[in-house]
């Protein structure tokens, strides 16, 4: 079984500052990992995904995440926060070839201060 | 439209009533998922449809919940005898095919409030 833990339900940064959203996973098999973003009153949108290729994954809107097996982590980063980044971010894990078993974290709400 | 659509966007009902939530997936997508998002919680998997295979109902929280997918397209999630703890946002997602690297595309959700 797979699971993810997102550290920090709320993160607040200033505009232009580094964004770091933490995600640790637990999986009995090499995982596939995903970050989704949810803007208010909208569905989830895929930011990026790791599917066992390059460990540093670049996504949309300047976000990237690095898969670190030794730390069982898949933290999401962005060098410089923009006001439009304010949203809820979800980390998710699934087993290869079993996408009907995707498990999501509780989410981290990102606030960007001017 | 090009994306996943859900209706209604908001539903307020009284405890004990039945509700139906609708999901229109992206045309051609064979996989369809229902999730529940409660306040402060992550997404809870409810049910998964893949083509003509029997659905994976392992996430349904009780026998008051059921779902069907007609003609391999539109899906309806039904909650019978609603309870206050059923209040949540219900999200639908669809995926092109069976490859687990394929992206799930989410609809905007239905916010259910049970009074």
Q: Which consecutive residue ranges of chain B, at least 5 long each, have pLDDT under 50?
A: none
Order of helices and strands of chain A: EEEEEEEEEEE
Quote the distance from N terminus to C terminus of chain B: 33 Å
- Helix share, percent of chain B: under 10%
In a nutshell, what does this entry contain?
Chain A is an all-beta fold.
List its salient traits.
heterodimer, A: about 110 residues, mainly beta, 6-stranded mixed sheet, 5-stranded antiparallel sheet, 11 strands, about 60% strand, globular, B: about 120 residues, 4-stranded antiparallel sheet, 10 strands, about 0% helix
Give the SSE layout:
The complex is a heterodimer of chains A (114) and B (115).
Chain A: E1 3-7, E2 10-14, E3 19-26, E4 32-38, E5 44-50, E6 56-58, E7 64-68, E8 73-78, E9 87-95, E10 98-104, E11 108-113
Parallel strand pairs in A: 2-11
Antiparallel strand pairs in A: 1-3, 3-8, 4-5, 4-9, 6-7, 7-8, 9-10, 9-11
Chain B: E1 5-7, E2 10-13, E3 19-24, E4 31-37, E5 43-50, E6 65-69, E7 75-79, E8 88-95, E9 105-106, E10 110-114
Parallel strand pairs in B: 2-10
Antiparallel strand pairs in B: 1-3, 3-7, 4-5, 4-8, 6-7, 8-9, 8-10
Can you give a write-up of this model?
The complex is a heterodimer of chains A (114) and B (115). By secondary structure, chain A is an all-beta fold. Helices cover 0% and strands 60% of the residues of chain A. Chain A has no helices and 11 strands. In chain A, strands 2, 4, 5, 9, 10 and 11 form a 6-stranded mixed β-sheet that branches. A 5-stranded antiparallel β-sheet of chain A has the order 1-3-8-7-6, with no helix packed on it. The N and C termini of chain A lie far apart (41 Å). Chain B is mainly β and 115 residues long. Helix content of chain B is 0%, strand content 46%. Chain B contains no helices and 10 strands. In chain B, the strands form 2 sheets. In chain B, strands 2, 4, 5, 8, 9 and 10 form a 6-stranded mixed β-sheet that branches. In chain B, strands 1-3-7-6 form a 4-stranded antiparallel β-sheet, with no helix packed on it. The radius of gyration of chain B is 13 Å and the shape is globular. The termini of chain B are far apart. Classes of the chains: A mainly beta (114), B mainly beta (115). Chain A binds chain B through residues 6, 9, 32, 36, 41-46, 49, 51, 90, 92, 94-107, and chain B through 4, 31, 33, 35, 40-43, 45, 48, 50, 56, 91, 93, 95, 98-109.
